[in-house]
Amino acid sequence: MRGLSSAHIAVADPTPFHRRVIADLFNDGKSGRVEFYDNGATLIESCTSSVPDIVIIDDKLPFVNGVELLRTLSVLPSFERQLPKFILFIDGSTRSNVQDAIAGGFAAVIKKPFVPNYLMQIIRQVFLDLNHQDVQP
Question: Measuring CA to CA, which residue among 78, 58, 77 is closest to residue 69?
């Protein structure tokens, strides 16, 4: 089983402050590689050649929302062998929003503003779930 230090995480969030907070979470040298994108188009372009383990998407990206971006990423040829786990950041979550996101394929939904330690806890859990999928027969 792989540890979080080997994780490849892509974050698509248009807010520099959020990207900086997430970068600080991963500065310990034990938490994997993180790539940041300020829009969905650059994330899609990157994912055509490199498949992350976890993709964190802000629902309010320029030109595309999180659910639309997940749908686009899910059909990329590079994702045929293994689909990453997706985490969605949303503003003002309601039970309906969360249920729709989970039904749409997100492994977790986090309301903004987020608590950094809670985000890291969710990332660890999602990565653990991903690894258990890899070892299932």
Answer: 58
